[in-house]
Specification:
With 296 residues, this protein is mainly β. It has a domain of 200 residues: Roll (SH3 type barrels), CATH 2.30.30.30. The chain has 2 helices and 20 strands. A hairpin with a 5-residue loop joins β17 and β18. It is globular, with a radius of gyration of 23 Å.
C-alpha cells in the first residue's frame, strides 16, 4: 500500500493524493452479504429535523453485513473466495480469487471469509492479512493477526482491534482504518486497555477482540483533491460562522473580518465549542475510564 501523487492535468488532480490498493482486486461485493440502502435521511431524525449537519447527496451504495461478533468459534476460515465443484468433495479447492474488498461505508477494508462449513462472512481486514491466510475465533486460539478471542486468554501487551464493550454484543472500539488498542494490564475480571484516543479504559475480560491493527493505514494521508469528490461521499459544504449574518450564527455580522467578540467560540445554537466537554458526569460507564483522552 502506497500513496500516489497524480499528474496535475486538472486543478483537482493537482492536489489529489490517493492510496494504491493492490490487495483490493475483487471489484464487486458478495451479493448475499449486502443489503440495499434506502434513500439517505441526510442527517435527519425520525421527526425530519436535521440533527447532523453537512450530510446529503452522495453516490448510491449497498450496505455490507459485517460480522462484528465473530461467534463462529473453532471453525477455521480462509481469506479467499472459493468455488466448489459439486461433483467433488468440498475440501477440493478449485479456484481462489482475491477477497480483500473496498467498503464505501467505512474507512477500513473488508476481508471475505469462507468457513470450513461453507458459510461466508465479512470482517474488518487487519493490517498485513493477505489472500489465502487462515483465521479462527475461539477461546484458545493462536495469537496471530486476524484471530479473535476473549481478552482473558490474551497475553498482556497484545495489540488488538475490534474490541467489544459488552460480552457478545459485537465490536465497538478501534474499528476505523489504522486503529489499534493495546492490552496494558489485567486486574481481576477487568482488562485495562489503551485506546487509540489515548484513553485508558477497563473492559470485561470476557469481551472478544481481534489480534493486530486495522488495515488501510494510509487512509488519513490521502487528499481528495476537489470539492466534488467530497460530495460523492455524501458530505455537503461547511460554511464558516463568521461569514454568516448575526441571525444565523453567534459569530456572524460586523464590518469586514470582525473578531468573535465572545469568551469562547460558539456553535450555531450558542453552545461553547473547542474543548467544551459534553460527556455526562453521571454516565454509568464513567467508572470504567481510568484516564481520560485529554490526560485528566
Amino acid at each position: 500500500m502506497a500513496l500516489k501523487q497524480h499528474n496535475p492535468t486538472t486543478p483537482g488532480q493537482r492536489t489529489r493524493i490517493s492510496v494504491e490498493r493492490p490487495e483490493v482486486a475483487k471489484k464487486k461485493p458478495e451479493r448475499a452479504l449486502t443489503t440495499g440502502r434506502r434513500n439517505s435521511k441526510a442527517g435527519r431524525n425520525h421527526h425530519g429535523s436535521v440533527t447532523v449537519r453537512h450530510k446529503g447527496g452522495g453516490h448510491k451504495r449497498r450496505l455490507r453485513e459485517v460480522d462484528f461478533r465473530r461467534d463462529k468459534d473453532d471453525i477455521p476460515a480462509t481469506v479467499a473466495a472459493i468455488e466448489y465443484d459439486c461433483r467433488r468433495d468440498k475440501d477440493d479447492i478449485l479456484a481462489t480469487v482475491a477477497a480483500i474488498e473496498y467498503d464505501p461505508n467505512r474507512s477500513a477494508h473488508l476481508a471475505l471469509l469462507h468457513y470450513a462449513d461453507g458459510e461466508k462472512r465479512y470482517i474488518i481486514a487487519p493490517d498485513g492479512i493477505s489472500v489465502g491466510a487462515t483465521v479462527i475465533s475461539g477461546n484458545k486460539v493462536p495469537i496471530r493477526t486476524g484471530n479473535c478471542l476473549p481478552l482473558e486468554h490474551m497475553p498482556v501487551g497484545t495489540v488488538i482491534h475490534c474490541v467489544e464493550l459488552t460480552p457478545g454484543r459485537g465490536a465497538q472500539l478501534a474499528r476505523s482504518a489504522g486503529a489499534e488498542a493495546q492490552f496494558v494490564a489485567r486486574e481481576g475480571r477487568y482488562a485495562l486497555l489503551r485506546l487509540p484516543s489515548g484513553e485508558m479504559r477497563m473492559v470485561d475480560v470476557r469481551c472478544k477482540a481481534t489480534i493486530g491493527r486495522v488495515g488501510n493505514v494510509d487512509h488519513d494521508n490521502a487528499s481528495l483533491g476537489k470539492a466534488g469528490r467530497k460530495r460523492w461521499k455524501g458530505i455537503r459544504p461547511t460554511v464558516r460562522g463568521s461569514a454568516m449574518n448575526p441571525v444565523d450564527h453567534p459569530h456572524g455580522g460586523g464590518e469586514g473580518k470582525a473578531p468573535i467578540g465572545l469568551d469562547s467560540p460558539r456553535s450555531p445554537w450558542g453552545k461553547r465549542t473547542l474543548g467544551k466537554r459534553t460527556r455526562k458526569r453521571s454516565k454509568p460507564s464513567n467508572r470504567f475510564i481510568v484516564r481520560r483522552r485529554y490526560g485528566r
